[in-house]
Fold this sequence. Notes:
The structure holds two protein chains of two kinds. By secondary structure, chain A is mainly α.
Amino acid sequence: xxxxxxxxxxxxxxxxxxxxxxxxxxxxxxxxxxxxxxxxxxxxxxxxxxxxxxxxxxxxxxxxxxxxxxxxxxxxxxxxxxxxxxxxxxxxxxxxxxxxxxxxxxxxxxxxxxxxxxxxxxxxxxxxxxxxxxxxxxxxxxxxxxxxxxxxxxxxxxxxxxxxxxxxxxxxxxxxxxxxxxxxxxxxxxxxxxxxxxxxxxxxxxxxxxxxxxxxxxxxxxxxxxxxxxxxxxxxxxxxxxxxxxxxxxxxxxxxxxxxxxxxxxxxxxxxxxxxxxxxxxxxxxxxx
Amino acid sequence: xxxxxxxxxxxxxxxxxxxxxxxxxxxxxxxxxxxxxxxxxxxxxxxxxxxxxxxxxxxxxxxxxxxxxxxxxxxxxxxxxxxxxxxxxxxxxxxxxxxxxxxxxxxxxxxxxxxxxxxxxxxxxxxxxxxxxxxxxxxxxxxxxxxxxxxxxxxxxxxxxxxxxxxxxxxxxxxxxxxxxxxxxxxxxxxxxxxxxxxxxxxxxxxxxxxxxxxxxxxxxxxxxxxxxx
Lengths: 289, 230
């Protein structure tokens, strides 16, 4: 039963990873930028929620109402200012710019909030759980996080596949120059994609902050988990990102079941295995593009 | 009435000058064929009009200068291009491809489907999975859906079988009769002369011949673009 429990908890943990990863996946898919500041932006969102919950005495879920739009606006501005310029300067520039941004965010957070470990207060809800038979129980918060991740990915998939904005994003991703010949403004399409991505980053940051603890320097660790989820699932596939998150989560909890210190290592090993055996990812065919 | 007016257009790729003082005008409803060998500057001329290569000189659309506008703004101003090699979006279906740059006007999905009757059957397929001729039809349809005042077409016949090219040129003739103003860049002189009212011949970035299509033969044009003069 402990193994079944490890799998169930792994799936729930995978929900968090999938939520982290979808913004990274979207920005890579549309802009072809690997955003190295992705994890730090997630942590920034969690700290913003600390400020909002502290200032207004509201629960973290309510802080979403403020933090999601703020991060989305930040994404729009970031794209129109820093990232768009870096895109014009070749493939290496966006990597360097987002790496620099990562360092700036970490140090700014350290300066403002100190290196203390934080968490977002959830009260009794944070520990409430739902018995699902046998001696298995799942935490409500973990379950809701997973459901939010699925909803966000389904929503993104819908936007990309069915809306005019999504069509513009796919066209711009395929061929920005030709997309301009069709009257699409690549800068606005990129900015819209970044805004949506950072909106999901805000969700990820707050749910992570409610489920565990965070510090200003946690970003790179989160980036690695998000990156692994995206690669395991297959770059450019949103459902792949969900699957990648779940596989990573299960690898970590199953590894920890063998030996508590093996959890994160097991996740990395599965990631390496996927890279070696199926580098295009689990849900992507190699010949698609 | 003049729709497009290009004056003294120079274009450069880095230090290399590709166009030297090109002048051309295009009247409402007219089809102009731009003819020349590889490297003569035909594609550069279209890309300069679209704002995809930096150019000096005047480009006026309906009397308004396009200077300083980015390509997507020029599309909104009323000029669209069907690029060489079709350049369809691999992630988009045929129907999505047609809709991606659609603007209100006479050319809507129904009109494009009527022009290319086999396209509706393919509308759910990825645009990249079609045959070359079908892809070119979709690329032309995509340009039409923007409902431009001037449509630029770059090497429509490139890499296609003669029978397919013939059918595409019939469609272009229909588009021309419907009143759309077009510039057709072409290496197939015979096809170009059959469609266009005027020809504009380029060699090494310079205008070497401009004439009404009825006043020149294919041999005149060919000799002009190989450097024989008329």
